[in-house]
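Now for one specimen:
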Amino acid sequence: MKRIIGVGLLSAAALSSVNAYAAKAELKVIGTITPAACVPNFAGGATIDYGNIPAGTLNKTSKTDLPLRSTTITITCDAPTTFYLKPADERAATVATGVLPPAATATTVFGLGAAPGGANIGAYAISLTGGVADTGTTSRTQSTNGGASWAVWNGRLSNAGNQLIGFTNGTTALPAPHTTITADITVVPSIAPADTLPLTNDITLDGLSTIEVVYP
C-alpha cells in the first residue's frame, strides 16, 4: 500500500511540474482604419489686407468699390478622395443693406463687419476661379440640394448655407476623386455710403468667411 501511494504522489508531482510551464503569451494585432483626409490651405495667405482707406476717398451717397484682391487655395488629400467645399459667412449679420459689389447678388455677398455704433461697413463677394488638379483636368461644379444633383458653376460663393462645391474629372458634372486641387480665390469688397458710417474714428474691416472641406 505504501508503494502504491508513493507512485501516485510522484505522478501528481510530475503533472504539477508540466502545468507550471504551460504559460501563454498573447500577441495582439491592433490598428485603426481611418478615412482619407483633405486639408485646405491658403497658399497665398489667409488674410486679404486693404490697408488704410482714406475716408475722403469714399463716395458719400453711394457705395465705393474697392479693387479686387486674390489669394490661392490648395486642398491636399492623403489619397484620391471625393470632397466638397462648403462656404459660410461668419459675419452674415453685417451685410450692409443695398450694398452689392460688381456682379454680386443678395445670395453672393458676405459681411464686412460693423463700425462703432453698429453701422454695417459694407459687403464683399468671393469667387473661386481656375482649378488645377493632380489629374490635370477638372471643372468646378456645385450642388445646392445636398449633393443630389450637380451642375457646372460660374464660381461665385454663396452665403445661403446650402452650397457644395466640387471638382470634376472634366467629363461630367459629378465631383471626382482628387489628391490635390489648387484654385484662385478673388475678393471684391464694396464700402457702404460714407454718409452712413461714423467716420470720426477708425473703422476696421472685419470680414470673415470659412471654407469647410466635407465628404459625401
